[in-house]
């Protein structure tokens, strides 16, 4: 009810805006329109007063709400009329067409004549649209003195229209679908019709008066309003949770429990730890589980739970604390509540939970609470606070950052969701058909625990597909009174009205769409939501303030992408926005229009065309009929907003344009993907006189901007950010005096002629001084007093300080960002002139960001020097200046960012105390920069804190710089305690000395092209800390650049062109998980330092060595016993590793080999002492190693020591191995005769490339777990014998790739009818059919594969087949037997033909592959056409790559009949 009242008040306020300053009234008086306008203005004021009185009354009932809605609609009509009237006022002023001014005020006859002329104009225009005109012409041409009967009837039908005179801004609507629209450029100039306006204004005034009187009558019987505490609708939370299990929060729960009972908060005073997150995220449940944890219960002497809810009432909170705090003997009964609490908690540790805080109206109350509770002498007491609001969390926290709860991870959310749906928390076998729909529902809920509970219980009522799909489609969870929507609605109701508007109208933006701040603010400006409270506020200031508040309340999520802040709304919050805005907002997803519920009060329309598809007669007629039906429910003429997201076929656009023909009152228009000119979709575009926000986008570089945009005098935002077409602005753009924002590529700003007339403009991203002979002078900037951002180029064209002073930058008090640019390629340099010009461009002291580029004067201006006047400066960028005297930054106490670039004369960087706020320092291209200078002297105090907040330090291209402003330390904790990013590059004299303990405090460290290092890169991410070092030739030891002064948390270490790791280094890598060493001399060096006898192990899981030149086998052999968790080993191009022995201990190898009497085994074992080419795998790798990769190890041989390896030869000892790849290592299996199995049965993936010696697949028959097998160039005589066991019962092979073996399948009969021998008598039993497990096959043995027995065997399983023509030279077509065999593959879904050079036609019968979805033809130049018997109806995609033009042309003809046709 009161939302409807607030909405009505808002509309009335907007309607009064045009008459507020009296300018429109003066103009109306000159048009003989004054009294009529005055009557409407007075009535609007009376309505406003009535609504103000209504706000004080107790209102109720749907009838009253309907009356308020009708009153609002009438106010909208008044707003439209006054807005249009103001349009004509502006038009008259711009074009000097206020002819009425000379005809008004002469009295009597003059006024009658004036009225008569306007009436005649109106009648004439109405009559001109009637058949009467045609009838008169026909009469004259025929010489007849009377009208035909048909003409008479037409005239009689037309005459009643004269009593309904339409304004000239409205055009008669042709029949729906009429294609004859003419051209927008032929639209006549809009004219003001005083008689018609008078009638309309009087009608609206009378209707307003009627509605106001009715409302007043009702208000007389209403009592005073009783304001209920919103907290009454909020349930009181208790310490005991009703949820049987906590899902997905174990990590954060255990972290908090550890911190408050054993960790960082135990030895501190009172700690306040907030938990913040949107409604429904499980904050209270989490704290309940923490509160009731036995460890927590035992740790704290006193535990108190208080549900605060909306109002933080200090007295109430203190009373609750006193109530639950046990009394002590020494307490004084006459004490105050605060004193009692202090006495009772003096010697106790306590845990206080303040659940669900929404606001703390008085900050002093919070301080008083902390003061009272902080008197305890015991350390480690904790206050846990839950809140939805980030500003509350920031206000109360005493820790570095609050605990923020977002949606659960997918896996945990899935468990929670299913726990509410099914009793056992899993899909029953007979309910698997619900899985897909359930997943779609879960995706919508975005990990919200309360949403899982709400929707899960709803789905549990009926486990049917119909019910679940209905819930998904209708979003039935929105109707639950105690579910997620109620929780979110509570947050919405708590918002002030202006934020409710900003949030609810954001529903027009598609869900999951990321928006920049200016996108949202532009929409709000266009809807007149942002109303400045005084003249000192700009729209951007108000919009950013509102947006920040919505982020704080959790309605938008803020994310940073490539340095830009973007905002997105959670799906559930988008649903809430749609719900609360449903009375006047509508979102359509074409072509599905019929199923949408439409309110007759809809004024804002958002349309998505992503599902529209291509135009054809059927789809076009369907859309036309649905839009006709829509128009019976939607008043298009009342639309204020139209937003179209997605592209639209030109024919669809024309149909849609017919639908929008009467949309004359649009305030906001978004067309982001225009493929056809504006008039194709918005036929009456030139008549949209109410437009406030216009957003256009196109990828068509030939499309031109509509020239009539300069006629939209109410326009405040022009967004061309996504416009890639021609952007020639009309010369009279300066007519748009209300324009505040132009979002477009920067250069477009420079084309605005006479930009000085746009006095409300808030950003001018490019202003080129004297770009043309007139209209671009510095004086154009004089009256742009609202500017927040300004970039001035070509300042070298200003030759006098007087001309520079005309810009009046000092008077621009809203200016926050300014760039002053002198062209670096200018032909001449006048240092004196440029110095005087810059001196005259003195700025207002509130400027925050200043960039000066290319200035040729000898020094900085005085207002940046000794007389530093820009005290609000936060960022300073100096680029390419010729100064010898630099700014005195000692007064810039708010400086956050400092950048010096390409400055040759800067030799010293002076460090001042004002750098205490600096967060980012960038120094680039300073050719003379040698040293840092502290203002207190050359020597820096050891405990100095000159950069206490610095987070980013970048130094590039400073060839003379030796180091940072202190010796022997790369990162001083005293100097850079907050540093997160450090980069030093292209500084050849810079000597890095990097302490592990220091860099691990940072987020990233990057050094390139410094002394001894080509690259040093350290970074932290969610996956852990990584370090990469690439050395130069003069790097002889890691100790020269890296100091291992503590055990490191680095989890990934990559060394390239580096000396070997020493044992002292390895002992510090206690967290290492991944070790990569490439292009280096060795892996590990000698122990040294007396540490060789130290017992040690590393948690390394993955090692890769690539192109090592040292004793790689020996070094790795010595390292492996210390890596008990190693699961992946990759060895690439290590030519010095020549033999591999698996499954032995190093010590065992030597001792046992000495006892053996010769042979290969003795040689392999003895090689440990004499041959550095041996690599020994220790026994523990049997149970840890899961993935092994040898690539390009040309001399590597697998040595088989059967007496030393329990469990078999070859690699069988590696019983946990799952993935094995042997690539370009031809000798690896050369010592084996393959009479027995060589690989462990645990293998799931086996890749053999260019490995010789394998004749059949019998040695692989034991690989019962194998799912993927790839064999390439393993011998032309390789046959598939033994494959059957991998594909049938007991086998799991799903993917097979065979190449370079042209007779692999030749003569193979898989014989699916295998006889089973009788276990006792050996007699054949009844044969049985078996099926294949193979799903994907890739081969170049075409002749062998395409045989009926093989294809019949694979028919039920094979879904993907790729055929290579490498061995099919001269093959022009498939023989009939091969075509018939191919058709047996009835399950085939994907079929590809690759590199058939001579093949002239595809196999016949492809149409019989009724499951086929994808057909690819690649590198087959001789194929000229598709099969004559066509393609299967099931085909979804046809892919053709580098084939004949004839084939491509035929495939193009199939577009539209096949969903996707891809041709390259």
TrEMBL record:
Ranges for domain R13L1/DRL21-like LRR repeat region come to 779-902
Is the keyword Repeat in the record?
A: yes
Q: Which one GO biological process term can you cite for this protein?
A: response to other organism
* Sequence ranges assigned to domain Disease resistance N-terminal in this UniProt record: 28-93
The similarity annotation says: Belongs to the disease resistance NB-LRR family.
**Could you tell me which residue ranges the NB-ARC domain spans?**
267-423
GO terms for molecular function, please?
ADP binding; ATP binding
Name-wise, this protein is AAA+ ATPase domain-containing protein
Question: Per the database record, which ranges form the Disease resistance protein winged helix domain?
Answer: 510-577
Region listing for Disordered, in residue ranges:
169-191
Going by the UniProt record, its keywords in alphabetical order are:
ATP-binding, Leucine-rich repeat, Nucleotide-binding, Plant defense, Repeat
- Which InterPro entries does the annotation name? Apaf_helical, LRR_dom_sf, LRR_R13L1-DRL21, NB-ARC, P-loop_NTPase, Rx_N, WH-like_DNA-bd_sf, WHD_DRP
